[in-house]
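Repro:
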Amino acid sequence: MTEHIKNERWVYFADWERSPATRVEDLLLLGYDHFSKATPLTSHKHEDAYEFVYVDQGAVDWEVGEEFHRTNAQHIIHTRPGEQHRASFDYIGPSTIWWMIIRDPAQHIEWFGLQEEERQTFVRWMQNGPRVQLVSKDIVIYFKRLKQLLQQPCTELLEFQLRHYVLELLLQILHHPQHIVQSPNMNTYTQQLKVRLQQNPADRYAIEQLAEEMGLSQSHFYRVFRETNGQSPTSYMERIRMDYACQMLTESKMTITDIAMELGFKTSQHFSTVFKKMIGMTPKAWRKQHTQLDK
């Protein structure tokens, strides 16, 4: 059956464009991605630039050097110049992200046209800011406005407007206090649910049961869970099972059918379908690739 929802991508890349926007040399790339299925996102780095990634929908696991970070909706993560980074397991699951790559202000004295004192302020913020932050949903407004500016015909004030919105976006990220998680209780409950599933991945929990444990109606539980984690409870639990499956495929000699049964799937076909959607390849291909990498 043909898929009706496809991956969507929009990218502004300074070297490709022929417009006054390219004179804003410190904005290297701006992009939007909607991943309807798992898609490769392998290791890379930017020698002279910072990358900021805002998770609009879904949840994404990242590896930055030897660090592991999980981001949900409304989280923004950044990498510094020269840092190797990738999506965990080299695949990004179903999600929506906005991202921006800008030059390192510490290495460019005319960075976005700022005075020296202002530039040094951004240097300090960007070098010392937390890796992952929870930010307001309003940050999307700035990404969308930049996208509109980069797509519109040249105007007299285009360069000024681009600089303004990039700096406003950075101020939203770097200089605003950490936003409160929508539901601290739900955040704690989510972590407890993750531990339960890691210990017993075959367990299946109905929304009704989970809502009852929290003392909430099903609809309220579903809404708060999605706001807190950026995905539905079902998608969240399947992602944990697939991470566990990746571990078993690489660390054990269990057959794929046995792994499917261990994870509570009734058939290996169903397990393979879910695995491919979440990870981007079949369990067999995953095992073959990672066995070869270990040799």
